[in-house]
Amino acid sequence: MPMSPRWRGLLLTAPALALVAFAGGALLLAGRGSLADGLGRGWSLSAYAGLLRDPAFADSLLLSLKIATLSTVASAVLALAVVGAVSGSRRGRAALETAARATLAVPHLLAAAAFALLLSGSGLISRLTHAAGWTDGPADFPALVAGSAPSAVLLAYVWKEAPFVAIMLLAAYTPAVRDLENAVRTLGAGRLRRLRHVTLPLLAPALTEACLLVFAFTFAAYEAPALLGATVPRALSVDAVELYRSVELDDRPAALALAVVIGLVIALVALAAAAISRRLLLARTGP
Predict the structure, then answer these.
(1) What tens-digit pLDDT sequence spans the chain (287 residues)?
(2) Residue 251: is it exposed, middle or buried by C-beta count within 10 angstroms (0-12/13-18/19+)?
(3) SS3 label, residue 120
(4) Short-list 153, 146, 161, CA closest to 115
C-alpha cells in the first residue's frame, strides 16, 4: 500500500523535528535550572535579576550580537560574490565546491588555533612584517587577537562560514537560474541589474536559511571567542561556559540564565527568518 504524501512528508521531516525537540528540551531544562539555586532546588528570579544589574551583561550581549551580525553579513556577501563570479564556469563551480568542502572539514577549534598562530603579536604574520622591516617588533603589530575589536574572531568565522554559505548558494543556483540570467542578458541587462532582479530574488530563500544558521552558530559558539577574543568584555557563550565551570554552585543559575538568553535570541532570529522566507515564497508563487 503506497504511503500518503502527508505521512511521507512527516517521515522526511522527522529528523529535523527530533533535533528541534531536543533543542527545545535542552532549553527548558536550562530555564528550570536558571530559576533554581545552585543545587537545582526552589524557584527564584535572582539569576536574571543579577544579570540585569551587571553592566558586563549588556556589553557581552552587544559583543555577541556584533560578532554574529558582522560574521553573517560578511560571509553572505563574500559567498554571493564568489558564487556569482564562477557561476558561468563548470570548472569554476567544481573548484569552488571542492575548496568549500575542504574548508568545512576543518574543525572550528583548529581554525581558531590556526588564526591565533597567524594573527597574534608573536604570530607568523607579525614575524614576517618585522622581518620585512615594516614593524619594529610585536608591540607595533595591530592587536588582532584579544584586542578591543573582535577582528581575529570575525576573520576566523568568515573563513569558516563563507564556504558554507557558498555551498548553500551553489545548490540553489540551478540551470533554470542561469537560463533566466542569460535571457535577461540578451535583453541588455547589465551585471548589477541581473543580480538585483534575477539572481538575488531566486537565491534569497537559500541565502536567508544559510544566514540564519551562520548567525545562530556564531552567536552561540564558544571556541573562537574564547581563544581569539578579549577577556573584557567576553562573548555571552564564553561567560556562560566559564560560569558553569565555576567551583561555586551559586554561579550555575546565572550560567543557565545566559544559556536561556542565547536560546531566546536565536529563536527570535529564527522566527524573523521564517517570516522573511514565507514572504519570499509568496512573492514567487503568489498567495
Answers:
(1) 567 777 777 788 888 888 888 888 888 888 898 888 767 778 888 889 989 998 899 999 999 999 999 999 999 999 999 988 887 788 888 899 999 999 999 999 999 999 999 998 888 999 899 888 888 877 788 888 888 889 999 999 999 999 999 999 998 888 888 888 888 888 887 777 887 788 888 888 899 989 999 999 999 999 999 999 988 889 999 999 999 998 888 888 999 999 999 999 999 999 998 888 888 777 766 55
(2) middle
(3) coil
(4) 153
Q: 89-97 long-range CB contacts below 8 Å, 24 or more apart? A: 93/170, 96/166, 96/170, 97/166, 97/167, 97/170
Handedness of CA 189, 190, 193, 195 (dihedral sign): positive
> pTM of the predicted model, to two decimals?
0.87
The neighbour count for residue 153, using CB atoms within 10 Å, is 31
Q: Could you tell me which residues come within 8 angstroms of residue 113 by beta carbon, excluding any fewer than 6 positions away?
A: 227
- DSSP character string of 228-273: HS-SSS--HHHHHHHHHT-S-GGGHHHHHHHHHHHHHHHHHHHHHH
The Cα–Cα gap between 92 and 81 comes to: 13
